[in-house]
Amino acid sequence: MEEIKNKTEQSQNQQGGGRKRRRRHRGGHGGNNQNAQNNQNVQNGQKPQKGQAPQNQNQGKQGGQNNAVKGNAQPQKGQQNSQAAQKQPQQQAQQGGKKNKNKQPQQSQNQQVQQKQNQQSQQKQKQVKQEENRKDTYLYTLDGNLYVNLTNKCSNGCDFCVRNERTSYYGNYLWLRNGDPTVEKVIAAANGFGDLTRFKEVVFCGFGEPTYKVAEMTALCDFFHEKGLKTRLNTNGQGNLINKRDITPELKGKIDFVNVSLNASCVEKYQPICRSQFGEAGFSGLVEFAKLCKRNGIDCRFSIVDCIGETEVEACKRLAQSVNIPLYVRSYITDS
Ligand code: SF4
């Protein structure tokens, strides 16, 4: 999943022009609701909150002017004070006098607010329904590659895993609500993509560790090879521990390239952030897995992200060199 996040970040960089943080969108309901409340407060004779336009008062004054034009605001006998003459129509407006024509715009405003709230409520209901009816995503595309999401199981619980914070991944629902897909289901989904040769490669990488599904993965490699595509496995390197056997001979001739997420230079640094269910064996297991891939003639590399710090990056380089596996250092950019 680290690979996915990085790809997204690359995509975001391309779109956003560099290391910009993506801002979360804030809902725009507050303003409308506050205006609605403010109008209601004025109707109820309450004092509007600071900074909020006392719309009824304005309307009341306008109402007074209108009434004055009609002659309704003539001073009564003995009332020479023009202020008193103006006050009367204003009070009438506030009390909702029958002849106040300016009440209509305010009602119209309230209706608009209500209408908007109804629309928002309907939209939310629609989204909930879409979520209920959504299909699991077995295949998705990113940066010209076709990604295969075979399972949600994982032997790690990494702090940085994108699945910790996302239900959908750019519109792709990688959480599999209907269980892991069969080979047939993935092939059916792949056929829905039309000409597959437009993809650079097929990558086994989703919301889980693909080596839990080694049989399905190797069968799918045959399908994709027949279509002329290269195959890559992005893994936490614990496939032999997961399957309780050396699976690397099974990958030979099926997976063209293996990317093992190293994440740290030693078990003491790896386990606190990746929390392998195999404990300390998780880290030594992934190093051994990479060595076995290489021994079986499978092109393999380690990968890390540079946010682990310069010292740790150097330590990872030394480890990779010691087992003669190339190391790929990716830059990390937050997307929060
Ligand atoms: S190893 Fe598992 S928990 Fe860690 S990033 Fe990959 S999918 Fe997520």
Notes on the protein architecture:
Helix 2 runs antiparallel to helix 5 (103-133) and helix 3 (55-70) crosses helix 4. The protein contains 12 helices and 7 strands. A 7-stranded mixed β-sheet has the order 1-2-3-4-5-6-7, with helices on both faces. The chain starts with a helix and ends in a 6-residue tail after the last strand. The protein is globular and about 80 Å long. Helices cover 47% and strands 10% of the residues. Helix 7 links the parallel strand 3 and strand 4 (230-235). It has a domain at 135-330: TIM Barrel. The protein is α/β, with parallel strands linked by helices and 336 residues long. Mean pLDDT is 77; it is low at 6-87. Bound molecules: iron/sulfur cluster (SF4). Iron/sulfur cluster (SF4) binds at residues 1-2, 154, 156-158, 161, 163, 208-209, 236.
How does CATH name the architecture of the domain at 135-330? Alpha-Beta Barrel
Could you tell me the strand content as a percent range?
Answer: 5-15%
Average pLDDT reading: 77
Stretches with pLDDT under 50, minimum 5 residues:
6-87
Report the radius of gyration as a whole number of Å: 32 Å
Q: What is the ordering of alpha helices and beta strands?
A: HHHHHEEHEHEHHEHHEHE
Q: Spell out which ligands are present.
A: iron/sulfur cluster
Under CATH, the homologous superfamily of the domain at 135-330 reads Aldolase class I
Distance between the ends: 17 Å
Under CATH at level 1, the class of the domain at 135-330 stands as Alpha Beta
What's the total number of strands? 7
Structural class of the secondary structure composition? alpha/beta
CATH-defined fold name of the domain at 135-330: TIM Barrel
Largest sheet: 7 strands, mixed
Helix content: 40-55%
Task: Tell me the strand order in the biggest sheet.
Answer: 1-2-3-4-5-6-7
